[in-house]
């Protein structure tokens, strides 16, 4: 099946051909790279935040590429693109990938010898003059997958960044980052926290801080509630500024949600007004900063906590010029509610061979 045979608005969220796997990966790879450049150019993130942002995006891209290698020739299973307001692979795909790679040593021992498989490829192509069978291609892909993909680089449900000294002028002395893939909305989130530490040695407390963040800030929730939960857990930690980036939805031909932007793009693709590779990416940035402090608890268990200002919510849309024109026509109320006019990014061009 060629790229031109991809059914568009109403089919399932499965990728079931080599062409679709290659097509989808190119779209995600291109969109995330455009996002990183645009976030820096439009000052959506600081210089240090962009460095962390790129690291988390690289893990996401690495994982999706691993899925492509794993599933491309698999006749029994297909990768699933989430049907909620996401456009990214379903969370369970990341979970399956992580669990599967924990058993890689078991599978590697069962793989066919590379030299034997090469002989079979040559026999099919040169002597029999016929294409290599899908089953042999799957065996070759499995060898690449199990011998080259590293579990530690898979985008997990929670990914913790290191604690470092915050850049000069930040709200706190230290900063850290983390990322999580929310199971409910099936989208990746990237978080940054600037904080002060009032203990004696932050090095001996880093693991406690990491554990606290994983237990308290690993899902989509009201940002002030997240901030309060972090503040309560460890008395020596004084969060001053928390920033959370919601990546998505990724609006593309494989998304099937009810989002207005997704619907407008899918309808235009179905009407042949837009090419299959048309895409847009929504981005939401929430921030909250501490304003003052208050004391909570009784005489023997007093704790000084932050009183948080009202969270700031900002929505952005990144899209090529033609898509921006379409969205102003089809979804003017969404465009008018953005923090700034839609950010123009490059068109994606994929050969339809």
Could you name the key traits of this structure?
353 residues, alpha+beta, two-stranded antiparallel sheet
Helix tally equals 11
Q: How many β-strands, per DSSP?
A: 11
Number of domains: 2
pLDDT below 50 for ≥5 consecutive residues: which ranges? 1-12
The percent range for helix content is: 40-55%
Mean pLDDT: 85
Q: What can be said about this structure in brief?
A:
The chain is an alpha+beta fold.
Description:
It is a single chain. It is built from eleven helices and eleven strands. 35% of the residues are buried. Strands 3, 4, 5, 6, 7, 8, 9, 10 and 11 form a nine-stranded mixed beta sheet that branches. Strands 1-2 form a two-stranded antiparallel sheet. It is globular and about 80 Å long. Helix 1 (18-41) packs antiparallel against helix 2, helix 2 packs antiparallel against helix 6 (134-148) and helix 5 packs antiparallel against helix 6 (134-148). Helices cover 40% and strands 22% of the residues. The protein has helices at 18-41, 47-71, 91-101, 104-108, 114-127, 134-148, 206-216, 223-233, 260-270, 321-330, 332-336, and strands at residues 14-15, 79-80, 158-160, 164-165, 174-182, 187-197, 237-251, 280-296, 303-308, 312-319, 343-344. It has two domains: 3-153, no CATH class; 158-344. The model is unreliable at 1-12 (pLDDT under 50). The protein starts with 13 loop residues before the first strand and ends in a 9-residue tail after the last strand. A hairpin with an 8-residue loop joins strand 4 and strand 5. By secondary structure, it is an alpha+beta fold.
